[in-house]
Amino acid sequence: ETGVTQSPTHLIKTRGQQVTLRCSSQSGHNTVSWYQQALGQGPQFIFQYYREEENGRGNFPPRFSGLQFPNYSSELNVNALELDDSALYLCASSFNRGADTQYFGPGTRLTVL
Amino acid sequence: AQTVTQSQPEMSVQEAETVTLSCTYDTSESNYYLFWYKQPPSRQMILVIRQEAYKQQNATENRFSVNFQKAAKSFSLKISDSQLGDTAMYFCASLFKNAGNMLTFGGGTRLMVKP
Q1: Which of residues 18-37 of A touch B (CB under 8 A)?
Q2: Which residues 53-112 of chain A have a CB within 8 Å of chain B?
Q3: Nearest-5° angle of CA B80, CA B43, CA A61?
């Protein structure tokens, strides 16, 4: 059974640029959630995708957007990067939406200069 | 809004001893789930244990067990026979079925296991 994978591992961008982060869900999982974890803090929920549709969104501006593909992999896109977007971005997949346990990938470390 | 609070930023324990990490949460919901996740320096968030709020019995997973006090809204994690590999950040998290299926995390407790 393949776990959750994310790419790239690290990324450096400059303010104003756009970035795309990728996530492959665990085999058999149809739901993907994205979280932002600033240094020294707990993760904050960005949004969740279930069967290619957005299924909930946290308190993040519209420049944070996402996609889920028919194979349930997902992308997180961030436009007009700001310095405060520097963080670890975590992807988690679950067997279904709702109360199913979420299993996390290793994360992508984004640095905005 | 749902909140999760971990009041111990850092803790340390000697190898083979027992340590308890505290977590409190605030909700008016009745249908929810609680989790402890471990995040070692490798950064990957690893599930330690899960508790359904409707179950009175405390969850256990090998050396890890919880003390779930629903009325007090408390959910502590006990680690028995601590091992060096238990050194990590530990996050308490909640999931409320009527609040968007999102995990709400506490601020974390950094646990150091000393030889």
Answers
A1: 33, 35
A2: 55-58, 88, 90, 92, 97-99, 101-107, 109
A3: 125
Phi/psi of residue B84, nearest 5 degrees: -55, -35
Give pLDDT tens digits for B42-70: 889 999 999 998 888 899 999 999 999 99
Question: Using CB atoms within 10 A of its CB, is residue B70 exposed (0-12), middle (13-18) or buried (19+)?
Answer: middle
B25-48: burial string, b at 16+ Cβ within 10 Å, e else: bebeeeebbbbbbbbeeebbbebb
Residue A110 has pLDDT above 90, yes or no: yes
- Nearest residue of B to residue A45, measured between CA atoms: B102
pLDDT digits (tens, 9 = 90+) for B7-17: 999 999 999 99
Cα distance between residue A112 and residue A59, in whole Å: 20
Distance of alpha carbon B77 from alpha carbon A70, whole angstroms: 38
**Cβ atoms of A98 and B97 closer than 8 Å:** yes
**Tens-place pLDDT, residues A24-35:** 999 889 999 999
Which candidate in A10, A30, A37 is best for mutational testing of the B interface (most B CBs within 10 A)? A37
Separation between Cα atoms, residue A99 and residue B13, nearest integer Å: 33
Helix (H) or strand (E) holding B56: none
Distances A107 to A32, A42, A90, B72, B93 between C-alpha atoms, Å:
13, 14, 4, 34, 18
* Residues of chain B neighbouring A36 (CB-CB closer than 8 A): none
